[in-house]
Amino acid sequence: MSKVKRTYSSRSRLSHPSSSPSSSPPSTTKRKRFGEGAENEPPTKKRTTTKTPSSGTLAKSKQSGLRQLHFSIETSVLRACTICGLSYTRGAPDDESLHRAHCSRVQRGMEWGREEEREAEKAGVNEIQAAAKLKNGKKGRIICFKANVGGRIGSKLAILLETINLALSSPPLSNEILQSSKVYLYLIPSLTNAHREKIVGCVIAQRISTAMIVAAPSETLLERDFNQATDRDSTPSSPTHRLVAVDTTSGLFCHPQALPTPLGIPRLFVPSVHRRQGIASRLLSAAAATFIHGCPLDPLNGDVAFTQPTEGGHAVMQNWGRGGVRIYEE
Ligand SMILES: CC(C)(COP(=O)(O)OP(=O)(O)OC[C@H]1O[C@@H](n2cnc3c(N)ncnc32)[C@H](O)[C@@H]1OP(=O)(O)O)[C@@H](O)C(=O)NCCC(=O)NCCS
Ligand SMILES: [Zn+2]
């Protein structure tokens, strides 16, 4: 599982070796943390597939000894949802309803209602763009507020972040990060309730100081050649510089120098039914344009960095930032 190296979760994984998919305890850990919104078993599709064999292994072990019958009952009701990837106990009302709520948030997003609007002014919510058009023609709006907001909006943000962290198998953002971050939300009118809007995208934008430049594909190939050479030959001539491997599976390497970079994106999320409508890109552009008052930032110029991205995040990073987006450690 070398690909499970996202910065989002790698630290937690290092400190929790039992989350290895080849061992059985993950389900226990996951269920214990399910309602807490802390780091969790990875509901990303990539890792969902690794969970299936895990429960299969347990199922097989039960066949070899009747003594473990209680084990088989436990594992047979544990289900990993193929949509959101979350594992939960089938038949346990609490687990089932928590899963249903999470699954719906991952697919369709949460609501932004009257209650939030009522507090918007007091909470310092700014409307960044009033009529932001999606690819499907629908219009929405982009709002922004501080990530350490309290009250009703703070509670809503906490659930949203919990959903995002679960979906990305990321640890919660620290208070320190939240203090230096802004939230950008993309809202579209609700189809079912005229007084409500749907949150169809979220970007957390964080003030950072440095980040690394992503290596060009040609440099990455050289690095791979060098790695292969060192595998074969124990006394290689060292290159003038080495690249930092961010994700070897996708071939994401960086130059190790930490360069001044003002804006970091530690979380980026669009519910699944609203993807590929340009929402993430628009939110990122809104964040780059407004994060520092009076000083628009340019991703092409290296002003913006992502934490180690997912596959989809990497694609957006390339498409939106045209190779100029950097990488930083959360
Ligand atoms: C990644 C994510 C935020 C993208 O949101 P989105 O609103 O669908 O992104 P956009 O519509 O702005 O995509 C812009 C471009 O990025 C590329 N892109 C986006 N998602 C992609 C995907 N899954 N596969 C390949 N390319 C993709 C495409 O080039 C796309 O342009 P196109 O639709 O015209 O081809 C969304 O898929 C998501 O929330 N995924 C789960 C959470 C996650 O992985 N977050 C990223 C953490 S780093
Ligand atoms: Zn689900």
TrEMBL record:
Residues 9-27 have a biased composition (Low complexity). It comes from the Eukaryota. Belongs to the acetyltransferase family. ECO subfamily. Residues 1-65 are annotated as: Disordered. Keywords: Acyltransferase, Cell cycle, Metal-binding, Nucleus, Transferase, Zinc, Zinc-finger. One of its GO terms (biological process) is mitotic sister chromatid cohesion. Residues 263-321 form the N-acetyltransferase ESCO acetyl-transferase domain. GO terms for molecular function: protein-lysine-acetyltransferase activity; zinc ion binding. Residues 54-65 have a biased composition (Polar residues). This is N-acetyltransferase ECO1. It holds the Pfam family Acetyltransf_13. It is found in: Nucleus. The keyword S-adenosyl-L-methionine does not apply. GO terms for cellular component: chromatin; nucleus.
